[in-house]
Write a structure and sequence with these properties.
Elements: E1 6-11, E2 14-19, H1 30-45, E3 51-56, E4 60-62, H2 67-70, E5 109-113, E6 116-118, H3 120-126, E7 130-134, E8 138-140, H4 154-162, H5 164-173, E9 177-178, H6 179-184, E10 190-192, H7 194-210, H8 214-226, H9 232-246, H10 250-260
Parallel strand pairs: 2-3, 3-5, 4-6, 5-7, 6-8, 7-10
Antiparallel strand pairs: 1-2, 8-9
Helix pairs in contact: 4-5
Protein name: Enoyl-CoA hydratase
Pfam family, one: ECH_1
GO molecular function: catalytic activity
């Protein structure tokens, strides 16, 4: 599979997806959107991939929808069937839509936000499991400045990450937020010098691939993303079911063995 507007590479157990329209600040087009989803699904299906790193080429992560496409975008495009295809029939439909599919991927998605993340670029980062930012990163919802609304579930996910007051601020003002302010409000977990960002993201991805059980990571990711729809009792019931299964898994046996034998783990994800 070849791509025009992204690059895709696998390093060890890590798939690196890079948005590659640097002359347009990696703004989204229909081609880029389609390629990003195809690449994400490719990584999800690859048994040799255990984590995904998403970043941008050049000085931006993703500046949102390309204005040249947005200007001629038909209103019904947002609900076009080709964008709403299911990723996994065993996962919640909420995580099968045009931009909300990262939570349905059974592997951690790490956004290495190297520069501007505006509009849909910020949406992509929000649906990731980890967000690391360069000191040069800038975040903005942008929608209110374009006469638009809180798109693609951002009104649901943003306050869950930064709180209601911060979400109201970011959405209604569309102001630009620095990486340090983003960290202070919990939007990102780490802020790094630009030259260290990708290395830090790869280190995290490698740790998630080798040091801990890929099977455990997959199950816990699903538990965390589905918990907003569950009562405490439902979350406990699911946890008990998953615990019963995990105690019979190869990764559990390996987890005990490598600890007792004082050696590095060799998890198979099974």
């Amino acid at each position: 599979m070849s791509f025009e507007q992204i690059s895709y590479a696998v390093e060890g157990y890590v798939a690196v997806i890079t948005l590659s329209r640097p002359n347009r600040m990696n703004a989204l087009t229909k081609v880029l959107e389609s390629e990003l989803r195809d690449a994400t699904e490719r990584a999800a299906r690859d048994d040799n991939v255990r984590a995904i790193v998403l970043t941008g080429e050049g000085r931006a992560f993703c500046a949102g929808m390309d204005m040249e496409e947005l200007e001629v975008l038909p209103p019904d495009d947002i609900r076009a069937e080709n964008w709403m295809r299911p990723y996994d029939m065993n996962r919640r439909a909420d995580y099968q839509t045009r931009y909300s599919y990262f939570p349905a991927v059974p592997k951690p998605v790490i956004s290495a936000v190297n520069g501007a993340a505006a509009g849909l670029g910020m949406v992509l980062a929000l649906y990731s499991d980890f967000r690391l930012a360069s000191e040069k990163a800038v975040f903005s919802t942008a929608f209110a400045k374009r006469g638009l609304i809180a798109e693609h579930g951002i009104a649901w996910i943003l306050p869950r990450i930064v709180g209601h007051a911060n979400a109201m601020d970011l959405l209604l003002t569309s102001r630009k937020v620095t990486a340090e302010e983003a960290k202070a409000m919990g939007l990102v977990s780490r802020v790094l010098p630009p030259e260290q960002l990708l290395s830090a993201a790869m280190t995290l991805a490698t740790e998630l691939s080798a040091i801990v059980s890929p099977r455990s990571v997959k199950v816990m990711k699903r538990q965390l993303w589905e918990s907003p729809y569950q009562s405490l009792g439902e979350a406990i019931t699911l946890a008990n079911t998953e615990m019963f299964t995990s105690l019979q898994s190869d990764d559990f046996r390996e987890g005990v063995a490598h600890f007792l034998e004082k050696r590095a783990p060799n998890f198979l994800g099974k």
